[in-house]
C-alpha cells in the first residue's frame, strides 16, 4: 500500500495534499508522508465492531496525536472523542433531500418487491451484528400480516442465523440510485438496531434519508436517533417487541401530509453542501495553523487581520 500510494503521488506530481483518514489502520502505510494537514474522519467507534483488527486502539492514539482536526459522525461519538484531542467537531450525517424525496411520488415498484403484500415495513443498510434480529423475528411472528423488507448485504454474521419467516423478505444490496424506488412502496421505515457495544456510538445516516422520503420512522433507542429525532417527534422509539409493534401501528395511522410537514421543517436546516462547507473551513484553518507551527519564523496571530481564518479560529470547540 505504501509503494502504491508513493507511486500515485509521484506519477500525478502531487506535492501539496491533505491526508484524510477513515480508519487509523491506514497510518501503517502513510506515516512517512508530509501533508499540509491531517483529518481524522471518525465515523464509528471501530474498535467496538466484531472482528476489529488488533492494534486498532494503538493506531487511533497515534492518529489522534498527529491529526489537525477530528470529525465525528454524530454527537455521541463527539462526546467520546472530544477529550482526546483539542480540535474535535461533531458532523452528523446530512441528506440528499431531492434524491430521497422521489419516494414521495408514485413510482413503479421494483420487480423483486412488487409481489410483497402491504403494509411493508422496510430497512436498508448493512445487516450485521448491529441489527436486532431477535426483535425483528419476534415482531414478525406476532404480526404475520405485516411484511418486512430488508435491503442490504449480510456481513460478519452467519446467513443461517438470520430469522426466516414468510413475512421476512431479504432482497440483498441495492444501488443508491434505486433506494427511493423501494422506499416509495413502504409504509414505515425501520431502524431495528440492537443495543450493544457496536451500536453505542452509531449515528445512522439513513434516519434523515427516511424522513426525506416522507416515511414515518420507528427505531430502537439508539442515542443519536433519540436525540434529536425522537425528542422532536420525528421518530418513534421502542425496544421491546410489544412496544415496537405499538409504535409501528401508530406510525401506520399517520398521514403522509403530517409526516412531510414535520420532516421538512427539520430537513430545511441541513444539506450536504452546508456540511461540506463547514468541513472545508475547518481544513483551511488546520492548514494555516500547521504552516504557522512549522514556520521558521512564526507569524504573530495578533498581527493578522480580524477577518483572517486564523485570527477567528478556535482550537477548543465546545
What does this structure look like?
- The chain has 318 residues and is α/β, with parallel strands linked by helices.
- It folds into two domains: 2-93 and 272-303, Glycogen Phosphorylase B (Rossmann fold, 3-Layer(aba) Sandwich), CATH 3.40.50; 104-262, 3-Layer(aba) Sandwich (Rossmann fold), CATH 3.40.50.
- The chain has eleven helices and ten strands.
- The protein has helices spanning 2-11, 56-66, 75-81, 97-101, 133-142, 179-183, 206-212, 223-230, 241-253, 256-267, 272-294; strands at residues 18-21, 37-42, 69-72, 88-90, 120-124, 147-151, 168-172, 188-191, 217-219, 236-237.
- The strands form two sheets. A six-stranded parallel sheet has the order 7-6-5-8-9-10, sandwiched between helices.
- α5 (133-142) crosses α9.
- The radius of gyration is 22 Å and the shape is elongated.
Instruction: Tell me the structural class.
Output: alpha/beta
CATH class of the largest domain: Alpha Beta
Number of strands: 10
Tell the overall outline: elongated
Largest sheet: 6 strands, parallel
Provide the spatial order of strands within the biggest beta sheet: 7-6-5-8-9-10
Tell me roughly what share of residues is in helical segments: 25-40%
Extract low-pLDDT stretches: 301-318
Counting structural domains, the number is 2
The CATH architecture assignment of the largest domain turns out to be: 3-Layer(aba) Sandwich
The CATH superfamily label of the largest domain reads Glycogen Phosphorylase B
Rg is: 22 Å
**H/E element order:** HEEHEHEHEHEEHEHEHEHHH
Oligomer: single chain
**In what range is the share of β-strand residues?**
5-15%
Q: What is the number of helices?
A: 11
